[in-house]
Amino acid sequence: MNPTKNSVSRRQFLNYTLTGVGGFMGAAMVAPMLGFAVDPLLQAESGGDFISVMSVDDITETPQKKEFQVDQKDGWYETKVTRVAWIFRSGEDEILALSPVCTHLGCTVGWDSNPEYENEFFCPCHNGRYDEKGVNIPGTPPTAPLPAYETRVQDGTLFLSPRAQARGGA
Ligand code: FES
User: Fold this and answer.
1) Is the CB of 100 inside a 6 Å radius of any atom of ligand 1?
2) What's the whole-model pTM score?
3) CB 124 less than 6 A from any atom of ligand 1
4) What is the pLDDT along the chain (170 residues), one digit of tens a residue?
5) Phi, psi of 16 (to 5 degrees)
């Protein structure tokens, strides 16, 4: 092999070297700026902290409507959002906290609000019905149970997750 054929000229060597070093330095400067600019958008929304809602002693078998505030992050913006839950005891040690958002088309569901359907959650928009545990009654428009907040009890206080989650069911 002839070494002179594959040799790199001084000009080429300088070109490669300066391009490489320049590119590296540029990337080193731009990457942190890019990360800072895009970071809030890339952050997966964490579940967030649980929110104190009411004393456990005040929870009854009859659902009670409670409002609570949640911090919501949307990119760079942080706002307070009001959430609503129907909270009640269901069975011995079970506490349920249900979202009032109808799983049909999102209207607001009330407890025992229609005299024709006592002890049920009822949605007035299209006569959607849910039983006393918030499970949709077959043959009515909702196709899934009311979503539920995750519950935690600490020092006699009920804490709820910031968001209600869908439940499987009828
Ligand atoms: S939105 Fe509730 S039944 Fe349609």
Assistant:
1) no
2) 0.72
3) no
4) 454 556 777 777 787 778 877 777 777 776 666 555 555 544 444 445 899 999 999 999 999 999 999 988 888 888 999 999 999 999 778 999 999 999 999 999 999 999 999 999 999 999 999 999 999 999 999 999 999 999 999 999 999 999 999 997 65
5) -60, -45
Report the nearest atom of ligand 1 relative to the CA of 142. Answer: 3
Which are the contacts of 148, defined by CB distance < 8 A and separation ≥ 6?
A: 96, 97, 98, 99, 134, 164, 165, 167
59 lines ligand 1 (CB under 6 A): no
Taken as a whole, the chain contains a residue count of 170
CA distance 22 to 122: 67
The dihedral through the CA atoms of 113, 117, 121, 124 has a sign that is negative
What pLDDT is stored for residue 45 in this prediction? Answer: 43
Q: Which residue is associated with the tokens 């594959």?
A: 6
Give me ligand 1 centre to Cα 127, in Å: 7
Q: Which helix (H) or strand (E) holds 95?
A: strand 95-98
Instruction: Using alpha carbons, select from 80, 78, 81, 66 the residue that is nearest to residue 159.
Output: 66
**Distance, CA of 147 to CA of 106 (rounded, Å):** 11
User: Which atom from ligand 1 is nearest to the alpha carbon of 140?
Assistant: 3
